[in-house]
Each structure stands twice: as structure tokens, then as C-alpha cells.
Task: structure prediction
Amino acid sequence: MLELAHLADLTVELGPPLELGDAPKGRRRIIPITGGTVSGARLSGTILSGGADWQTVFADGSAELDTRYMIETHDGATIDIRNFGYRHGPAEVIARLARGEEVDAAEYYMRTAPRFETGDGRYAWLNHTLVVGTGARQKASVTLTFYEVL
Result:
């Protein structure tokens, strides 16, 4: 049987999107990650600036999420995170998100599968742990809740 345990809540602060335009597989956007916080019993700290979300937005408004950023833990470890996922929902809900409106996360689907990598022995368990997440988009940030698959 599959069990999940809460790992951490993240608030990922975002800069203005860079629109690359339509490409063969969809509209490409790069959204800078400028900082944020991580809070959980086993994982807490800050999100460092310098990462980004390389999104592909498809004709139906759904988005493929491909983020990469760094976490600095409360005790000084550095952890690389690559987070892949999807966001989709009714066209009117996705349009409201695109305009920067606050939208209840229950109105759309946003799920992720983060992967972690670190050389710090205190967090080596993350290198081989499956994690899944739920997300919500705000005007200038994304909130994520990560669950460890036990």
C-alpha cells in the first residue's frame, strides 16, 4: 500500500515571465525564481534566487512545468531541486490565472514530481526518495506542498 508523509511546504517567489513565443511544441515561457521559503519537520530553509521554471504552454492552456532551483537548509546544506509537473483546468480558470488573479487551487490541477540532489550527508536520504507535490499559483509566487512516498 502506498503511504504519503508531509515533507515540506514551499513558497516560491517569482519574477516577471520572459515570453519566448510559440515554438513547435507550444508557447515557451521562462519564469525566474527569485527566492522563497521551505518549512517542514525534516526539510526547512530558504530558496535561493537564480532558478527558473521553463514552461511549455499548450494550445488548450495546459502547462508543462520544468523548474530547477536551489534550497539552502536552515543548517547550511545546499540541495538542488528539479521539479516537473502539470497544470491544467477549465479554460476560464486558466485565463484567470494568466491574468494574475487569485484562484482557489481546488479549481484546477497542479501536481509535481520533484527530484533532489545533494552532497551533504545529512540530507543524502533525499537523493533516493520519491516525492510528489501539489501546487497553487499566486500572482508573484507559487505555493507547493511536498509529500514523501513511504
The chain has one domain: 4-149.
